[in-house]
Amino acid sequence: MGKKWRIRLSGTGGQGVIKGAMILAEAALLDGRNATQSQVYGPESRGGSTRAEVNISDARILYPKVENPNLLLCLSPEAYQKYIGDISEDAIIVLDGDLDKGALDRSGVYRLPITEIARDQLGKEVVANVVALGAINGIAGILSDEAVYESLARSFPEKILDVNRQAYQLGFQAGKAAIE
Amino acid sequence: MSKVRLVQGNEACALGAIAAGATFYAGYPITPSTEVAEQIAVLFPKIGGKFIQMEDEIASIGAIIGASAAGHKSFTATSGPGFSLMQELIGYAAITEIPTVVIDVMRPGPSTGLPTLSSQGDIQQARWGTHGDHSIIALSPSSVMEAYYETIQAFNLAEKYRTPVVLLMDEEIGHLKERFEVNDEEKPEIINRKAPEPGKEYIPYENTEDMIPPFAVFGSGYRYHITGLTHGEKGFYSSALPVVDAMIRRLWHKIEDRVDDICRFEQVDTADAEILLIAYGSTARSAEEAAEVLRAEGIKAGVLRPITIWPFHDQYIAEICQGRKAIIVPEMNMGQYVREVQRVVQDVPVHSLTRVDGEMITPTEITAMVKEVL
Amino acid sequence: MNALYENYFRKNLPHIWCSGCGNGIVMSAFARAMEQLGYDKNKTTAVSGIGCSSRITGYLDLNTLHTAHGRALPFATGVKMSEPEMNVFIFMGDGDCAAIGGNHFIHACRRNMDMTAIVINNHIYGMTGGQFSPLTPFGKKATTAPYGSVDPAFDLCELAKGAGANFVARGNVYHAKQLTDLIVAGARHKGFSLIEVMATCPVSYGRHNKMPKPIELMNHIKENTVSLARAAKMTPEELEGKVVNGILHQVDGKEYCQEYQNLLDRIQGGGK
User: Fold this and answer.
1) Under CATH, which architecture does the A5-179 domain have?
2) Contact between C74 and B23 using a beta-carbon 8 Å cutoff
């Protein structure tokens, strides 16, 4: 049995965290696992912080929400403040650069220049969500590359698929490097 | 590559409707049901279906009843406020016996309430929302796959029983995305309304043996009258006491006498369960998880999940509750389904677990209550 | 007349209407129009709301749908949209159409679906016993306006025109032959057609407004109606209080079902 993942992706509205969560969940399904994806709709997704959640498990997923995530991604300081509270003790935490200003002092924290990679290496800040997806997978090894590529292909039209593949690869390398 | 994909509950309803043979949709945008309309707006033109956005929910249900009279499997999707507006014409569909499917993605009310969160607060509205005596069928899915299959069932039951059918789906399932995979070889059964027998005189509201008269669609050559007034077998207004009485009683009995055919339940670990959790929709998932946790702790818990909310199967519920230590009915409302359980279960304590803040009931809340009542 | 009766009416008359009521005149004008149009009865649907006039559908030998108060147009929209080959007529009263059904009315005008709506305007809610409607003239009396109505009235034809109806006509129950012609013209026009019919209700309207006898209401219509041609030659002062009859507005706009069919053809042909 693979590990049961309770993943929360968070950031600011417009950073594509919901899309990222959908790509992640669909890839998990393609790997033959079960997944549920949900998000909170409503005032908090307007302008402010937004979060999307994914459960991944080999067993049937009953309660579909994420409680005490064991993987948290934060793409903005506000999201970090808001969603760090209820994570589990052994959680992996992936932050976009030094957005906590080094405050979080525990193991399993990875500060990666996610938006910077998207902006400087790919010239497209909008692919930060896919860079993050790559980083998460590089660190946690949740999904097969094959499933991720298929999921990306289902999620993006041809003309922006390539840049998203690159985004995933760069994120994955950054994640891999971080744990080595 | 695998055909499995990530699909949202609302989208699954749209796909289910198409699989059931629906070709007409009229609706008005409302959170959290709008994705049903958006999907249909994309998909119907590809298969020659008709999508129309109406000026309000009253117009939406009026249009689908009209299209159904013309022979098209028709549906609409809405949420609480829109469902309230539709009630008068749900009654019209009931008294004229025109098959219609209404998907109600439930959000907290009353009034505008909490548009983006979840609720199961329309259980009793679905049953009694329109005025007068009538029966109704309502189904509640607990997963995305079930949203697909129960939408098909909703059409089947609407066609078979010539009645409006409500798919009561909480927002949690409507917006949940999870595994969706349809096996093309295993086509679900599709039921179409009974047509008049050729060569035989057509009596539009004939009290047939099964209490469900055949349906002649407009344009098929049987010119007859459909009215929301009480009517005799020929369809024309009547206020004659025996005629009115027979009509209302037939509307009632054609459904209430068929609970064995209509009502479906899922049982999980009920055989030796001392604690029986009765839950539907997304809440049933929490109940099932709670039962697993309790079993691991040595507490014999089981789950009864009604898929059919209405009609209520008195006998089935009474029998399955017999001999238990306690019944707990968790639901995202102030106790709408539990009233029915309490009505038919006398000798076992029936407890209500309610939540009305827009969030799902968690497995932990259920296990805590079980321990409290034991 | 017998052939007309045999062809277009169900044999469940007598009707429910009071003597002097205009509804029967509209119904027979409609049957004559059907005769001229030559429509297949199996492919013709008549839809009505609730009220005295809406009972017309029960007497016609067509596919007939007697719906809910104010809602005839949405039902008709569903029939027509799903079966564009169906000829669809809608019968409504003034309260039915312009009050409770007002929102549906303006949107039906806007969509311009090829249907013909006949609104029988007797200026009153007849079936409920004489309450004022949005088409009751200012100052007239009703059971809910016992001292005279302070509500301004809609000009239904102007409303329809403003909302986008492509064919707008006004007739009345005195000029019955012209009424048939207007219905025929409206039906032949591709798009949403409104025919407002000035009608009589001696019991619930005339009685409260010093015209209790049917003949008085008929004379009132006769004396206050001017044709479009005559109106063109009259000054605004002369037109004060007069009702203009005829085809008031006619344009060829995009018809909804045709536009939807074009969309289907485009998408099914692989377009976007």
Assistant:
1) 3-Layer(aba) Sandwich (3.40)
2) no
